[in-house]
Write a structure and sequence with these properties.
By secondary structure, this protein is an alpha/beta fold. Helices cover 38% and strands 15% of the residues. It contains 40 helices and 35 strands. The strands form seven sheets. A nine-stranded mixed β-sheet has the order 6-5-2-1-7-8-9-19-18, sandwiched between helices. A hairpin with a 5-residue loop joins strand 33 (1230-1239) and strand 34 (1245-1247). Helix 13 (475-487) packs across helix 14 (501-510) and helix 27 packs across helix 28. Residues 949-976 form a coiled coil.
Length: 1266
């Protein structure tokens, strides 16, 4: 929701996704296509849609019925081979195990009927019911229906037979019966927001379904026969063939995109707006005419993000003479002068498509409003996003285009050369027109091959068909012939099959099988396009996206195991992975030992993919494959919406433990070690040097940079491959680190985000993030810090005998201002009311007293925060004041606030404007939220939250009553509020402190205990976000900052990183692809770092940067991966170690060691220690421990063993960090040092490769291996 927004989320909930793909099951009549195994791609899309919150999924069963031409509608028999779909098989195993209440053993489901599980017989032969049950368990809120394809086609094309209505969308497990009261119109309806998705279907089937979605009959004619035009149902097709994937979108001729990228337009601070006569580009301003031009200049240090044609809006305080807030006019950018200046004119409200904008301006807009821009009333500006209309072609129009006379042309090459129809998924491959033609031709040839031979191509060099007879032509030759026939009319000799034989051959030899990473990649794209068409959010794919990763086939010439795939006998089942890559690669994956750090959204997707690929299932002569998983977090309710392995009953469990149990259902032979330990500098835990050295590859599924950098450093230290993945809404990235070859993750890490200055938060906010952070701090102060402070002082306050002395000591220790503030807080929080009534949480009198106290307190805080404090700031810095540089004080990022106060509607002293009514309501919202949380500090309302709820009406009534009372006692009230806001400097400080402390002492005698509140962002009923939203928006209103809704406040205050299951699935797929490359040992240029933005959509695949080479001694180069290894006993002296370094590095006599460091600790510096024989004769490890203990990088002191352990009396106590470091030094099998050397002849200094000291056994020490 945080990524899509509330509007888009509602539309997703109203959407109906119709999925037509191989459902699996033994019976073809149930849509199984003759395969027991369903399409893994179909399950991927269904999973992504369910976790995205789509309202309804309709599954299409094949078979049954006739089309309007009298031809039987049959399934794509032969187009899908479930025996080579590893992901589909894994999903089927997992679903049967979960819904059957049993376990999976040896690849078979063993159902536990005694536990009330659903027997396999209920689902094994019915792929639709099995998938429906899986979707329900992912998201119980998704409705799942089943429809026959004939009924769906008839409905889309305009048919309406009673039989079709009975089949269209009855709930799975129910039967349609008129007597049961079903409304036939409701049953047949696909809803107001449907989309049809064809998955792993042939081109012929895609054409048939797309024609139906366009309202055409089976032969492409309009189904309404000249009647009123029918609504076009959006259509998407997704299919994979081996290492290739294709996505097609047809959203109709009039699809509207309401937001192209989903990004919040950046608010840019404004310096000035001034009218100009012309913009030097031929645009003249017409004074007194229809158009005036204005120059917009950014504040110094700011840069705008607008382009010519953009529409912008201004923000700031623009009140008329009656105090009514008047909106600034919207302006269109005429030209851009520089990154800080551009020219605008008033916008008439018309878009480029001549559609009226939501806030269309009248032609005779008041020019005085534009004049207000020139009077510096506007403080900032931002772009406005305008809707954009797109037109799509149908699949038939692309594949079978017509000439000018309406005849179907024999070739579609003119369409394939149109780059506007193809979305680039790879900057290298996507813009290669020859490759594009060949891949499209291969996809079409695949359909023709299946139609002709009833099956997919086999890769055998000698064809042996199912009749057992050998044939002259291989399937590869047959397939190449079909491709040649399709492209023969292109007229481009460069597209001959001979010149591109390898690409077509790779396609033909792998298209039969399914590759899990490609399926996961395509499933993410397909689901994302469904969300786009349902919401109008983000740019859709226009219109075909081709993706392949055939570069991963390099080095796969080790032979393949096709037995069983081509009709011959086989003792071992062939997987899709082994079919594509051969046994050597599949065995490498099975026997690999992977370390997966993180079991959140990305971690779950990775586990699912790895299980389907059989990673960690094999046993070799020297190694057992396994996946080591760690995550110290527990599962929260909010995790269930994007983490496919977790269910409701897992909430509160450790993610790693629950993930291990869940993923075993996908692959029972998988070996997973689950840990709950943190990976970081603090403590190695189970992850010591021996552990790291035992791994092949590390996969990062982390959400913070600090942990990523630590894992990266361990991978560099131990020479391990690393694959790091991350997401931010629709954006995702994957970085692969190849040992010895590429740069590391830390080589190009992004800098940390800067903190907001305290002065900005306190007095000078200019962005909504500033006011939200201020309100978040206010929440912690009011409802956590202050109650804790009160509880800490209850006992002390009751025991104080000399309050005067206590007050004086506070002033001495804390200073006047801090002492007054603390006394005020203690007086407020421990004051005599409401404790004098009693402390019975169920006593109505006590609850009433608390309610009154909380309302009074909240009203007082609102007045202090939004009126008194701001008034004092303006009093201290008047609007016309200047700073030390004689520049206007209220300029730049410093903007003067407008104090806000509550004014009763029947006030006799103040005129109540429309703007004041809004202010009153905002203040009432703050009082309502603040008073509620204040009551919960005194009442134990966990079982009955209604006790503390304070309605907006009650808050308004209390505010009006308080305002009238203050009018009568205006002077006393002002002085009191002035003191509360930190003023009252002329009063007796000690007297004020003693007065408030005395109140606190009285209340403390009742021994109260205030409840502490920790901010919880996910519980919408607790009022936490409501308080922060009210406080933040009130402050924003005072400073002229546009307010935001509660959802955006929750995102910022809760530091929520927007996540989308589609982006998560996509980066996980790319990570698994890079894993295959790493384990195959492919060269650096074959690997791909990825940056994707599904919103645009944009895909950038680049080879990793090679590791930077550093010049060393004698011009020799080394990288971060280089090591100089010195070994010796643990008693080796520092002097001996220095000599070994020079010897190992091959340094000449003129080279001397300048310094030796271990992390931040310098253990040797030539200019200090070259003559220190005592230090040189000290064992190396003792010198290192001395440095850690002393925390001195230069001056070393000798510390004996007892001192190191902190046992000797008088020694310095060791910090926890020092103890951890010393413990690690004892446990490490090697220690890496940074060494600088100097050429004595030239004076040049060089850094040697990392010097590694390998600990050996000291012959003087007796080792006991027991």
């Amino acid at each position: 929701m945080y990524t899509l927004g509330a509007r888009a989320h509602r539309l997703v909930r109203s959407a109906t996704a119709v999925l037509d793909g191989p459902l699996g099951g033994s019976s073809r009549g149930t849509g199984g296509d003759g395969n027991e195994t369903p399409s893994g791609l179909l399950y991927e899309i269904a999973k992504n849609l369910a976790l995205s919150g789509v309202g309804r999924i309709v599954l299409v069963r094949g078979g049954g019925g006739d089309d309007d031409g009298g031809n039987a509608i049959v399934d794509d028999v032969g187009y899908f081979d479930g025996s080579l779909d590893d992901l589909g098989a894994a999903y089927r195993r997992a679903t049967l195990a979960e819904v059957g209440g049993g376990v999976v053993e040896g690849g078979d489901v063993v159902v536990n009927d005694d536990d009330g599980g659903v027997a396999e017989d209920s689902f094994g032969d019915d792929g639709a019911s099995l998938l429906a049950e899986y979707v329900r368990r992912l998201n119980p809120g998704v409705r799942v229906n089943v429809v026959s394809r004939s009924a769906l086609l008839n409905s889309l094309c305009g048919g309406s037979s009673d039989e079709d209505k009975s089949v269209i969308a009855t709930e799975v497990g129910d039967s349609y019966d008129d007597d049961e009261g079903y409304d036939q119109d409701d049953v047949i309806s696909l809803g107001a927001n449907p989309v049809v998705i064809c998955v792993d279907r042939s081109t012929s089937m895609q054409l048939k379904m797309n024609d139906a979605c366009r309202g055409r009959g089976g032969r492409g004619r309009e189904a309404n026969n000249g009647g009123p035009s029918r609504r076009v149902v959006p259509f998407i097709s997704v299919e994979t063939a081996g290492l290739h994937a294709k996505l097609f979108c047809d959203f109709g001729p009039n699809f509207v995109v309401v937001d192209e990228d989903g990004e919040t337009p950046r608010t840019t601070l404004l310096h000035r707006v001034e009218e100009v006569m012309n913009d030097d580009d031929g645009n003249a301003g017409k004074i007194g005419g229809e158009m005036r031009l204005y120059s917009v200049n950014c504040l110094q240090g700011e840069r705008h993000d607008v382009s010519r044609g953009d529409v912008i809006e201004f923000h700031g305080n623009n009140d008329d003479d009656h105090g009514v807030r008047v909106a600034f006019p919207k302006c269109r950018v005429i030209s851009v002068k520089s990154p800080t200046c551009f020219i605008v004119t008033q916008w008439d409200g018309a878009t480029s498509t001549n559609q009226a904008a939501e806030s269309k301006l009248a032609a005779d807009s008041n020019s005085s409003i534009m004049t207000s821009l020139s009077e510096s009333k506007a403080r900032s500006f931002a772009r406005i996003k305008l809707p954009k209309q797109l037109s799509f072609l149908s699949l038939r129009e692309i594949l079978k285009p017509k000439d000018n006379e309406g005849s179907i042309m024999t070739s579609a090459s003119n369409r394939w050369d149109d780059e506007t129809l193809f979305a680039a998924s790879d900057l290298d491959k996507g813009y290669d027109p020859i490759r594009r033609r060949l891949v499209m031709s291969s996809m079409l040839a695949l359909d023709e091959f299946v139609q002709k031979y009833g099956r997919l191509p086999l890769r055998s060099s000698v064809e042996k068909n199912y009749d057992g007879l050998k044939h002259k032509r291989t399937d590869l030759e047959r397939f190449q012939s079909l491709v040649q026939k399709i492209i023969k009319n292109d007229g481009d000799p460069s597209t001959s099959i001979e010149s591109k034989d390898s690409l077509v051959a790779r396609f033909a030899q792998t298209c039969r099988a399914k590759f899990t990473p490609v399926q996961a990649f395509a499933g993410a794209l397909g689901a994302q396009e469904v969300l786009k068409v349902a919401t109008g959010l983000y740019n859709p794919v226009r219109q075909i996206l081709l993706y392949d990763c055939d570069e991963v086939l390099q080095g796969s010439g080790e032979g393949t195991s096709e037995a069983g795939a081509d009709g011959t006998d086989s003792s071992e089942p062939v997987t899709g992975l082994s079919y594509i890559f051969g046994d050597v690669t599949s065995n490498k994956l099975a026997r690999s030992r992977l370390f997966l750090v993180g079991a959140g959204a990305i971690g779950c997707e990775l586990l699912k993919n790895l299980a389907a690929m059989g990673v960690g299932t094999g046993v070799g002569s020297t190694r057992r494959g396994s996946i080591i998983l760690t995550d110290m977090d527990t599962i929260e309710k909010s995790n269930l919406s994007r983490q496919l392995l977790f269910r409701d009953h897992d909430v509160g469990e450790f993610k790693s433990v629950a993930a291990r149990s869940a993923v075993m259902r996908f692959c029972p032979n998988l070996r997973v070690e689950a840990h709950t330990s943190r990976v970081g500098e603090e403590d190695d835990g189970p992850f010591d040097d021996e552990f790291w050295s035992s791994c092949n590859v590390v996969l990062n599924a982390l959400d913070n940079v600090e942990a990523r950098l630590f894992v990266d450093s361990q991978c560099v230290t131990h020479g391990l491959g690393l694959i790091d993945a991350g997401t931010l809404g629709p954006k995702g990235n994957v970085q692969v680190v190849i040992p010895q070859l590429s740069e590391s993750y830390g080589s190009s890490a992004d800098p940390p985000e800067p903190d907001i200055p305290v002065c900005t938060l306190k007095n000078f906010p200019y962005e909504i993030s500033h006011t939200i952070q201020w309100a978040r701090d206010l929440f912690d102060g009011y409802f956590n810090r202050r109650p804790r402070q009160a509880n800490d002082y209850v006992s002390e306050m009751t025991q104080i005998e000399d309050l005067h002395a206590f007050g004086q000591s506070m002033i001495v220790k804390m200073g006047d201002d801090a002492a007054i503030a603390m006394a005020e807080e203690l007086g407020d929080d421990l004051g005599p009311l409401p404790f004098v009534v009693g402390a019975d949480y169920h006593d109505p009198d006590y609850i009433s007293a608390v309610n009154k106290h909380a309302l009074d307190w909240a009203i007082n805080q609102a007045h202090v925060l939004f009126y008194a404090t701001m008034s004092e700031l303006i009093q201290k810095h008047p609007l016309d004041s200047v700073d030390d540089d004689d520049m206007p004080f209220w300029s730049g990022t410093r903007r003067a606030p407008k104090p806000l106060r509550f004014v009763p509607l029947d006030s006799e002293e103040d005129e109540v404007s429309a703007q004041q009514v809004i202010i009153n309501e905002r203040i009432a919202q703050f009082v309502s939220a603040a008073a509620r949380l204040r009551m919960e500090s005194y009442l134990d309302a966990h079982n009955d939250k209604s006790v503390t709820l304070i309605s907006l009406e009650d808050a308004l009534s209390a505010l009006e009553e308080k305002a009238k009372l203050l009018e009568k006692k205006k002077k006393n009230s002002n002085a009191f509020l002035h003191n509360l806001s930190g003023g009252g400097k002329d009063s007796d400080t000690l007297s004020l402190i003693l007065e408030r402390l005395n109140e606190a002492k009285i209340g403390a005698t009742f021994l109260p205990h205030l409840n502490l509140v920790d901010f919880e962002k996910d519980d919408e009923s607790n009022g936490h976000v409501a308080f922060i939203t009210a406080a933040s928006n009130l402050r924003a209103m005072a400073y002229g900052i546009p307010p935001v809704d509660a959802m955006e406040t929750r995102r910022v205050a809760g530091r929520i990183v927007p996540a989308m299951i589609t982006t998560t699935a996509l980066v996980s797929a790319l990570s698994c692809l890079e894993l295959v490359k790493l384990l195959k040992g492919l060269p650096l240029t074959v690997h791909r770092n990825a940056f994707v933005n599904l919103a645009l959509p944009f895909f950038a695949f680049t080879s990793p940067m090679p590791a930077e080479e550093v010049s060393g001694v004698d011009g020799r180069k080394h990288t971060i991966w280089s090591r100089l290894t010195c070994s010796g006993p643990i008693s080796m002296t520092l002097e001996h170690f220095l000599k070994d370094i020079l010897l190992t590095a091959g340094c000449t006599d003129n080279i001397e060691i300048s310094s030796v460091s271990y992390g931040p600790y310098m253990i040797f510096a030539n200019f200090l220690h070259s003559e220190d024989q005592e230090l040189l004769n000290t064992p190396l490890l003792d010198v290192l421990k001395d440095a850690v203990i002393s925390e001195d990088s230069v001056e070393m002191t000798s510390v004996d063993e007892n001192a190191m352990k902190g046992n000797q009396e008088g020694t310095v106590r060791l910090s926890a960090e020092q103890k951890t470091m010393l413990s690690k030094l004892d446990q490490k099998t090697f220690i890496d040092f940074t060494v600088l050397v100097e050429d004595q002849e030239t004076g040049e200094e060089f850094e040697l490769p990392t010097v590694r000291f390998m600990k050996g056994k000291d012959p003087r020490i007796l080792h006991n291996d027991n």
